[in-house]
Amino acid sequence: MARKKRRRLNIFRLFLSLILLLVIAGGVTALGLVVISIKDLPAWSEEKLLSSASTSIYDQNGELVARVGEENRVPVDLKEIPQHVREAFLAIEDVRFYQHHGVDLRGIIRAAWTDITGGRIQEGGSTITQQLVKLSFLTPERTIKRKIQEVILAIITERRYTKDEILEMYLNKVYFGAGAYGIQSAAETYFDKPARDLTLSEGALLAGLIQAPSAYDPFVNPEAAKKRRDLVLDNMVKYNFITAEEAAQARAIPLEEMLKPGGKQQYPYPFFIDYVTEQLVNRYGTEQVFKGGLHVFTTLDPAIQEAAEKAMSDPRNYPASVRDSQGVLQPEGAAVVIDPHTGYIKAIVGGREHTHRLQWNRATMPPGRQPGSTFKPIIAYGPAVEYKGMAPASVIDDIPVKYGNYSPRNYDGRYRGLVTMRTAIASSINVVAVRVLMEHVGIASAIKFARGLGINLDPQTHGPSMALGGLREGVTPLQMAAAYGAFANQGIYLEPTAITRVEDASGNVLYEYQPKPVRAMKATTAYLITDMLKTVIERGTGTNARIGRPAAGKTGTSDQGKDLWFAGYTPELVGVVWIGYDKPRAMPQEFGGRYPAIIWRQIMSAALKDVPVHQFPRPEGIVTATVDGKSGLLPGPNTPPSDLVTDIFARGTVPTRVDNTHVLVEVCATTGLLPSQYCPERITRVMIKLPYSVPSYVQDYAQRVPTATCTLHTAPQEAIPPENQDQPAQPGEQPGEIIPPPGQQEQPGSDQGPVGLLREQINGPGWLSGPRNPRARE
């Protein structure tokens, strides 16, 4: 049997077969990729192509101050963009834009060749349409699947929209760096002008940013930005968009002449803008605020806001400061300024520095802080005047008292005895405030009054310490400003607002502020409190807040100086300043009358520098009367001229009883005690007689009728040898001299002011027992 002839291997045929197999495999793979790409193609949405608009925020004058949103974007019509600016983008991004149908094979080949021969990437291969759909529908990942999807979506887009519509969408969507999306925002960010006013050189600079905004940032890398701009101009000449002469003129313009002064900056007035944004989100939701293109008109006064930011950021206005583990300067601070007659918030500063959007705003956001003595007019003196008919001349005895286990102390350790409420509030005497609350007003009435000023307190968790600002949840500077606003506004409380009107993108009004005034107290009450608070600034603890015009205010210092406050107002504005550590920490040598009062003075002086001086309006029903300054009653036959005090009252509250606390008392001329039958010389004095005794370290102790009888003088005795005679008294031990305990000696600057209404009953014996506060509140 003959053997079959073996066929020789055909190398050429084998090569062709392998090529065919590779082509088939590649085709199958490509087809598979296309199928997978189509299967996972993002859902078509016209809304994703169209650019969302940021919310525009305007100040009290209708001037645009900021835009907020997921992107700083303001859509603009293509016809508003100059022709030379459009051509700059075409020259560098897609010169055949008006010839291709979404994908440009010639452009891809040309870009690749340019990049290879040039040694670096100068032109992109994607068309403007491809870039648009990538920005609108796809992720930034670089995969074949994503590229196939990009091509498919580009072709779909080209079939649905005209070239001009696609170019307009692209220019309104693309990112230019510095937080600017779209050409309108970019023009404002870099050149402080609208897109319609862009020059050739400016347009070329913006067109060059698209490829790598951070690398070509003109504020950070001006030389790289200039080279990229010049490349765009060269391409415009190359593709006959402009002449060589026009390009040379555009290249000759220095960047510093084009860019806006100050460089790229954080949006202005950040704490105020943050607060407004928070209010908008709570009302309309995130989607509407950050994408809906709202127009928001606010109460912002740029001049006052700038003054507040300047004062709050000045390191000289704080105790020695350090940065905490988060890099935040401590102690921190906050300030609020409002118009009490409208409730309009003029300025908000929520910290010494603003580091990122919607950070914790200490001026408006809980948790609140302990207000110290700034709370006294709200919880003690205000309700005493409103509900109990008390007045600046009402008298309270500043002596040790105790309520259960609570024993209030004064910040300086002194007890002044009988003082008027005007003196007590000017000198920030703690015991008097607590006694007014507990013995005259009562917890329930005090909480009712505070509620009318926008501060809600739980009567089950608050007691006598709230007279000194001891609150469970604390208060914010904004709450305090609104509460003090009622005193400045003749007793009418207005809920503060930062927004006056909101419009949608089409100009339809969504919201308009309608004030809802609430009568929180009688106008006479507000005036009497205001008049007392004027004394605080004129000669009390708040003298650092003097601004050379009528002003009223109150200092506040919480336990151990953890919170420092000044709350004050003029007839035009209310301002509140707080200083403290974010994690409460003692500042034992500081008090509200120092740095907070100084900051308040700086802010208010700047805010009112061009405002005519006005007096606080005096309402009907305010009368003047002279009373006895140790009892608060009408002067009696024994009232000494030094105790006569003239002050103001609400009509109907002037006392009708005549003073009977000043009495004529016969005392020993030597010791000042009640005389014994052996005292050789007696004198008659006008003294104060009350149904209780006080410790000898109370400052007016010597003016009160003594309770002890003189023992210095006794029955005559036979001569005593010299060696048995009493030794002379040592200095400081003269008979009858009152020696206060250490730390309670009289200090300079005390104000023993006028007038009063005497509480006839006082806690009985035992006022020295029980725990004492580690440090008194101011």
UniProtKB/TrEMBL annotation:
Give the lineage: Bacteria, Bacillati, Bacillota, Clostridia, Eubacteriales
UniProt-recorded name of the protein: Penicillin-binding protein 1A
**Where does it sit, as one GO cellular component term?**
outer membrane-bounded periplasmic space
Enumerate the UniProt keywords alphabetically: Antibiotic resistance, Carboxypeptidase, Cell membrane, Cell shape, Cell wall biogenesis/degradation, Glycosyltransferase, Hydrolase, Membrane, Multifunctional enzyme, Peptidoglycan synthesis, Protease, Signal-anchor, Transferase, Transmembrane, Transmembrane helix
Its biological purpose: Cell wall formation. Synthesis of cross-linked peptidoglycan from the lipid intermediates. The enzyme has a penicillin-insensitive transglycosylase N-terminal domain (formation of linear glycan strands) and a penicillin-sensitive transpeptidase C-terminal domain (cross-linking of the peptide subunits).
Where does it live in the cell? Cell membrane
How does the UniProt record describe the way this protein sits in the membrane? Single-pass type II membrane protein
- GO BP terms in the entry: cell wall organization; peptidoglycan biosynthetic process; proteolysis; regulation of cell shape; response to antibiotic
Q: Which parts of the sequence are annotated with region: Disordered?
A: 717-778
Q: NCBIfam families per the record?
A: PBP_1a_fam
